[in-house]
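Researcher: Going back to the complex we discussed earlier. I've cleaned up the inputs and rechecked each line, so this should be the final set. Can you rerun the prediction on the complete assembly and write out the structure?
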Amino acid sequence: MTYLYLAIAASVLGLTAWNLWTEKDWRKQATAAMVAIPLLLRVLLIK
Amino acid sequence: MKRHHATALAVTLLALAAAAAASIRFLDHRKPEPIVRGPGVTEVRMLSEWLPDLAGSPGDTEVYVFRGASPGSSMLVLGGTHPNEPSSFLSAVLLIENALVSAGTLYVIPRANASGFTHNDPQEGAPERYSVALPGGSVRTFRYGSRATNPVHQWPDPDVYVHAASGQTLSGNETRNLNRGYPGRADGTLTERVCLGIANLIRAEKIDISVDLHEASPEYPVINAIVAHERAMPLASQVVLGLEFLDIKIGLEPSPKNLRGLTHRELGDATDTLAVLMETANPSQGRLRGRTDEALVLKGRDPYYVKAQALGRLYVPFDENGHPIEERVGRHLSGISEFAFALSSERPDRPLEFAGVPEYGALLEKGLGAFLKPLP
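Model: Rerun complete. Updated structure for the full complex:
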């Protein structure tokens, strides 16, 4: 179950990072950056 | 580099910087607050000595041992089963820093659910910490934790928690409640393994009586009360009378046979110990409370509970004076002293005698800080 959860979190993190990199509106980029932080913490099993 | 790539890097760095700043306080919640080893402590052991599988895990926790000069009965005091019930933890701390045992052995676990101290409950607005001033001008600060094991340490919760020994079902988040996991099991969750470690300690050390300290919200029926396993009822009845002589009103409830996983039921059934649980009144964990801050934790005053009392919604008297932490800790410590006295009266050949425990009146008069030791 944990590995499945990590896979989902890593996938969403990857898509968020892709969105952050390709988006041209800085406000949406800022949103993506903030969304990516908790996802990163979860993938690293910190939170 | 394209412009939008530069902004992507900039906002990422800003988000990381903000998260890093916030994480300092967040991660600080995982550092145990120091407890000063009092003159009566003879050993500090770890729970993993009774369940080696716990070694190095977030469930391992200190066990303070007070071995008297002469043999006698033994008592285990569990503080911090629910780390959002501060009088439980603080009573254990005051015992550790002040108690002197002359006969018998006293075991104190101040952070029974050590993992529960490393976070607090989302959306409760509870303070991260509370501080108590000492007469010398210094301050002792303690964490206000969660009712349950940290989900970082035990995840995921099932939809339905099934108590292993009985098949009783409860909501999924109760799987992280230490006081629903007894008697525990070796191949269970972290919470169940901590329960097993405590049960193993009781069996191995032949603990005569186990006192689990709790707090309850003022609208909860079991409050300012002792809950006792049927084998512990005669002793608990004596304690109720003893506390009456100290002008401390306390109820006595029999441990329900169909409410499984709790100390007063499972430790009484699974071991030879006399299992009891004590409750005091903590408005900072109630549903009807107003602003939830350090003052509410320590002073226990809340105008909404005064209104609720006037409407007859509470199970404990509640006026403008509230229920300060000194009163709550004083009730617990008086109860523990009375249990030791009653046990010694029943078994004069195996007494459990200790001194130095702060008395109820002295706590109310001098405050909690007068009995906490300054940090070295």
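Model: Worth noting: The radius of gyration of chain B is 21 Å.
Researcher: Good, that matches what I expected from the previous run.
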